[in-house]
Design goal:
The structure is a single chain. By secondary structure, the protein is an alpha/beta fold. It has 2 domains: 189 residues, P-loop containing nucleotide triphosphate hydrolases (Rossmann fold, 3-Layer(aba) Sandwich), CATH 3.40.50.300; 52 residues, no CATH class. The protein is 33% helix and 23% strand. It has 7 helices and 8 strands; from the N terminus they run βαββαβαβαβαββαα. Helix 6 packs antiparallel against helix 7. It comes from Amanita muscaria (strain Koide BX008). This is G domain-containing protein. GO terms for molecular function: GTP binding.
Protein backbone atom coordinates (compact mmCIF):
# COMPACT_ATOMS: atom_id res chain seq x y z
CA UNK A 1 0.00 0.00 0.00
CA UNK A 2 1.37 3.40 -1.00
CA UNK A 3 2.13 5.85 1.82
CA UNK A 4 -0.40 8.67 2.32
CA UNK A 5 0.47 11.84 0.38
CA UNK A 6 0.92 14.96 2.50
CA UNK A 7 1.31 18.35 0.78
CA UNK A 8 3.19 21.09 2.64
CA UNK A 9 2.39 24.50 1.16
CA UNK A 10 2.35 28.16 2.12
CA UNK A 11 4.37 31.35 2.02
CA UNK A 12 8.05 31.72 1.24
CA UNK A 13 10.21 31.50 4.35
CA UNK A 14 7.43 29.85 6.33
CA UNK A 15 9.58 26.84 7.18
CA UNK A 16 8.11 24.19 4.86
CA UNK A 17 11.43 22.43 4.23
CA UNK A 18 12.43 22.84 7.88
CA UNK A 19 9.25 21.04 8.96
CA UNK A 20 10.23 18.05 6.82
CA UNK A 21 13.66 18.02 8.48
CA UNK A 22 11.99 18.32 11.88
CA UNK A 23 9.80 15.29 11.17
CA UNK A 24 12.62 13.27 9.60
CA UNK A 25 15.05 14.00 12.41
CA UNK A 26 17.71 14.85 9.82
CA UNK A 27 18.51 17.50 7.20
CA UNK A 28 16.96 15.77 4.19
CA UNK A 29 15.38 18.87 2.60
CA UNK A 30 17.34 21.95 1.56
CA UNK A 31 16.43 25.07 3.51
CA UNK A 32 16.94 28.77 2.87
CA UNK A 33 17.72 31.68 5.15
CA UNK A 34 15.65 34.84 5.00
CA UNK A 35 12.64 35.50 2.78
CA UNK A 36 13.93 34.03 -0.50
CA UNK A 37 12.84 30.45 -1.05
CA UNK A 38 15.01 27.70 -2.45
CA UNK A 39 12.44 25.14 -3.63
CA UNK A 40 11.97 25.39 -7.41
CA UNK A 41 9.67 22.40 -7.86
CA UNK A 42 8.06 19.93 -5.49
CA UNK A 43 10.27 17.33 -3.83
CA UNK A 44 8.97 14.18 -2.14
CA UNK A 45 10.35 12.63 1.05
CA UNK A 46 9.26 9.42 2.76
CA UNK A 47 9.22 9.94 6.52
CA UNK A 48 8.26 7.43 9.20
CA UNK A 49 6.02 8.70 12.00
CA UNK A 50 5.48 6.30 14.87
CA UNK A 51 6.05 3.32 12.60
CA UNK A 52 3.93 4.57 9.69
CA UNK A 53 5.41 6.00 6.48
CA UNK A 54 4.05 9.20 4.95
CA UNK A 55 5.15 10.82 1.70
CA UNK A 56 5.69 14.54 2.26
CA UNK A 57 5.74 16.86 -0.75
CA UNK A 58 7.74 20.07 -0.27
CA UNK A 59 6.54 22.85 -2.60
CA UNK A 60 7.59 26.30 -3.81
CA UNK A 61 6.45 29.30 -1.78
CA UNK A 62 3.19 30.76 -3.06
CA UNK A 63 4.36 34.36 -2.77
CA UNK A 64 7.82 33.97 -4.30
CA UNK A 65 7.14 36.67 -6.87
CA UNK A 66 8.78 39.13 -4.49
CA UNK A 67 12.40 38.22 -5.13
CA UNK A 68 12.03 34.47 -4.70
CA UNK A 69 13.03 31.70 -7.06
CA UNK A 70 9.57 31.04 -8.50
CA UNK A 71 7.08 33.59 -9.83
CA UNK A 72 3.87 33.48 -7.76
CA UNK A 73 1.58 32.37 -10.60
CA UNK A 74 4.02 29.63 -11.60
CA UNK A 75 4.22 28.38 -8.01
CA UNK A 76 0.42 28.05 -7.97
CA UNK A 77 0.50 26.19 -11.30
CA UNK A 78 3.14 23.77 -9.99
CA UNK A 79 1.17 23.03 -6.83
CA UNK A 80 -2.04 22.50 -8.82
CA UNK A 81 -0.23 20.12 -11.18
CA UNK A 82 1.16 18.20 -8.21
CA UNK A 83 -2.27 17.83 -6.62
CA UNK A 84 -3.76 16.62 -9.91
CA UNK A 85 -0.92 14.19 -10.61
CA UNK A 86 -1.16 12.09 -7.44
CA UNK A 87 -2.94 8.92 -8.53
CA UNK A 88 -3.34 7.79 -4.91
CA UNK A 89 -4.92 11.10 -3.98
CA UNK A 90 -4.10 13.54 -1.20
CA UNK A 91 -4.52 12.60 2.46
CA UNK A 92 -3.48 15.82 4.19
CA UNK A 93 -2.61 19.44 3.51
CA UNK A 94 -0.18 21.16 5.86
CA UNK A 95 -0.56 24.92 5.58
CA UNK A 96 2.68 26.42 6.82
CA UNK A 97 2.96 30.04 7.92
CA UNK A 98 5.53 31.91 9.96
CA UNK A 99 4.35 33.65 13.12
CA UNK A 100 3.82 35.67 15.05
CA UNK A 101 2.49 38.07 12.37
CA UNK A 102 -0.28 37.04 9.95
CA UNK A 103 0.22 38.08 6.32
CA UNK A 104 -2.60 39.09 3.96
CA UNK A 105 -1.70 36.23 1.61
CA UNK A 106 -2.73 33.63 4.21
CA UNK A 107 -6.45 33.90 3.43
CA UNK A 108 -5.92 33.86 -0.34
CA UNK A 109 -3.64 30.83 -0.35
CA UNK A 110 -5.82 28.88 2.09
CA UNK A 111 -9.09 29.51 0.24
CA UNK A 112 -7.59 28.94 -3.21
CA UNK A 113 -6.28 25.47 -2.42
CA UNK A 114 -8.52 24.18 0.36
CA UNK A 115 -11.88 25.70 -0.60
CA UNK A 116 -11.69 25.98 -4.39
CA UNK A 117 -9.24 23.37 -5.68
CA UNK A 118 -9.58 20.67 -3.00
CA UNK A 119 -13.27 21.53 -2.45
CA UNK A 120 -12.86 21.05 1.33
CA UNK A 121 -12.42 17.29 0.87
CA UNK A 122 -8.84 17.17 2.20
CA UNK A 123 -8.17 17.86 5.91
CA UNK A 124 -5.80 20.72 6.58
CA UNK A 125 -3.27 21.05 9.40
CA UNK A 126 -2.22 24.59 10.29
CA UNK A 127 1.46 24.74 11.30
CA UNK A 128 2.68 28.07 12.67
CA UNK A 129 6.47 28.26 12.82
CA UNK A 130 8.85 30.86 14.24
CA UNK A 131 7.38 30.81 17.74
CA UNK A 132 10.54 29.73 19.58
CA UNK A 133 10.86 33.07 21.38
CA UNK A 134 7.30 32.99 22.71
CA UNK A 135 6.91 32.17 26.40
CA UNK A 136 4.06 29.81 25.49
CA UNK A 137 4.01 28.75 21.83
CA UNK A 138 0.45 27.42 22.09
CA UNK A 139 -0.81 30.82 23.24
CA UNK A 140 -0.44 32.07 19.66
CA UNK A 141 -3.49 30.07 18.55
CA UNK A 142 -5.55 31.20 21.53
CA UNK A 143 -4.75 34.82 20.66
CA UNK A 144 -5.32 34.52 16.90
CA UNK A 145 -8.04 31.90 16.45
CA UNK A 146 -10.70 34.56 15.88
CA UNK A 147 -8.89 35.74 12.71
CA UNK A 148 -9.25 32.29 11.17
CA UNK A 149 -12.86 31.87 12.29
CA UNK A 150 -13.74 35.28 10.88
CA UNK A 151 -12.29 34.23 7.51
CA UNK A 152 -14.04 30.82 7.56
CA UNK A 153 -10.75 28.96 7.95
CA UNK A 154 -11.23 25.83 10.05
CA UNK A 155 -8.12 23.63 10.38
CA UNK A 156 -8.48 20.00 11.36
CA UNK A 157 -5.50 20.42 13.71
CA UNK A 158 -3.20 23.26 14.78
CA UNK A 159 0.48 23.02 15.74
CA UNK A 160 2.28 26.06 17.18
CA UNK A 161 5.93 25.16 16.79
CA UNK A 162 9.51 25.99 16.01
CA UNK A 163 11.29 24.28 13.14
CA UNK A 164 14.68 25.71 14.15
CA UNK A 165 17.05 24.56 16.87
CA UNK A 166 18.64 27.97 17.27
CA UNK A 167 22.29 28.80 17.83
CA UNK A 168 24.68 26.04 18.81
CA UNK A 169 26.16 26.26 22.29
CA UNK A 170 29.69 25.38 23.32
CA UNK A 171 28.53 22.08 24.79
CA UNK A 172 27.01 21.03 21.44
CA UNK A 173 23.39 21.64 22.41
CA UNK A 174 21.20 24.35 20.84
CA UNK A 175 19.22 27.24 22.29
CA UNK A 176 15.84 25.76 21.37
CA UNK A 177 16.46 22.02 21.67
CA UNK A 178 13.60 21.58 24.14
CA UNK A 179 11.12 23.51 21.98
CA UNK A 180 12.31 21.64 18.88
CA UNK A 181 11.67 18.20 20.38
CA UNK A 182 8.28 19.33 21.68
CA UNK A 183 7.44 20.65 18.21
CA UNK A 184 8.22 17.30 16.60
CA UNK A 185 5.91 15.57 19.06
CA UNK A 186 3.13 18.09 18.30
CA UNK A 187 3.47 17.61 14.55
CA UNK A 188 3.56 13.81 14.81
CA UNK A 189 0.41 13.79 16.91
CA UNK A 190 -1.42 16.27 14.66
CA UNK A 191 -0.55 14.42 11.45
CA UNK A 192 -1.64 11.02 12.78
CA UNK A 193 -4.90 12.53 14.06
CA UNK A 194 -5.74 14.49 10.90
CA UNK A 195 -4.89 12.59 7.71
CA UNK A 196 -7.49 10.90 5.48
CA UNK A 197 -7.15 7.13 5.44
CA UNK A 198 -8.16 7.11 1.77
CA UNK A 199 -6.60 9.87 -0.31
CA UNK A 200 -8.90 12.23 -2.22
CA UNK A 201 -8.17 12.55 -5.93
CA UNK A 202 -8.24 16.20 -6.89
CA UNK A 203 -10.73 16.79 -9.69
CA UNK A 204 -10.23 19.07 -12.67
CA UNK A 205 -11.29 22.56 -11.63
CA UNK A 206 -13.73 24.53 -13.78
CA UNK A 207 -11.78 27.64 -14.73
CA UNK A 208 -13.76 28.32 -17.92
CA UNK A 209 -16.96 26.92 -19.40
CA UNK A 210 -18.73 27.16 -22.74
CA UNK A 211 -22.31 28.38 -22.93
CA UNK A 212 -24.64 28.59 -25.92
CA UNK A 213 -26.18 31.96 -26.67
CA UNK A 214 -29.30 32.08 -28.82
CA UNK A 215 -30.19 35.08 -30.96
CA UNK A 216 -32.58 35.68 -33.84
CA UNK A 217 -31.76 37.14 -37.23
CA UNK A 218 -34.53 38.71 -39.27
CA UNK A 219 -34.89 37.76 -42.92
CA UNK A 220 -37.43 37.60 -45.72
CA UNK A 221 -38.72 34.26 -44.52
CA UNK A 222 -39.01 35.46 -40.93
CA UNK A 223 -36.69 35.19 -37.94
CA UNK A 224 -33.89 32.62 -38.00
CA UNK A 225 -32.50 31.18 -34.80
CA UNK A 226 -28.71 31.58 -34.46
CA UNK A 227 -26.77 29.68 -31.80
CA UNK A 228 -23.28 30.85 -30.81
CA UNK A 229 -20.81 29.21 -28.42
CA UNK A 230 -19.30 31.59 -25.90
CA UNK A 231 -16.50 30.95 -23.40
CA UNK A 232 -17.06 32.49 -19.96
CA UNK A 233 -15.48 32.21 -16.53
CA UNK A 234 -16.12 28.92 -14.74
CA UNK A 235 -17.14 28.53 -11.12
CA UNK A 236 -13.57 28.51 -9.77
CA UNK A 237 -12.55 31.72 -11.54
CA UNK A 238 -15.76 33.42 -10.44
CA UNK A 239 -15.05 32.39 -6.85
CA UNK A 240 -11.57 33.96 -6.98
CA UNK A 241 -13.14 37.25 -8.08
CA UNK A 242 -16.21 37.06 -5.83
CA UNK A 243 -14.12 36.43 -2.71
CA UNK A 244 -11.70 39.19 -3.75
CA UNK A 245 -8.81 36.75 -3.61
CA UNK A 246 -7.52 38.14 -6.90
CA UNK A 247 -8.26 41.00 -9.24
CA UNK A 248 -10.26 40.07 -12.33
CA UNK A 249 -7.24 40.31 -14.66
CA UNK A 250 -5.05 38.25 -12.31
CA UNK A 251 -7.75 35.58 -11.91
CA UNK A 252 -8.20 35.32 -15.68
CA UNK A 253 -4.45 35.00 -16.25
CA UNK A 254 -4.20 32.21 -13.66
CA UNK A 255 -7.26 30.45 -15.09
CA UNK A 256 -5.73 30.40 -18.57
CA UNK A 257 -2.54 28.88 -17.16
CA UNK A 258 -4.51 26.14 -15.39
CA UNK A 259 -7.38 25.43 -17.77
CA UNK A 260 -5.77 22.48 -19.60
CA UNK A 261 -3.89 20.98 -16.65
Amino acid sequence: MAPPNVIIFGETGGGKSSIINLLAGANVAATSSGSVGCTFRSNAYNVSIEGMTFKFHDTAGLDEGQGGTVVKQQAIVQLYELLRSLSDGVSLLIFCMRGPRIKESVVRNWQLFWDIICQKHVPILLAITGLENEQDMDAWWKNNQTFFTRNLMYPKSVACITAAKGKKRRDGSHNFDHEYVASREKMNKAIKASYRREGWKVQRTEWFKTIVETSYKSGKGGATEVKTNKTVFGSATNELIKRKLMKREEAEELARLLMDR
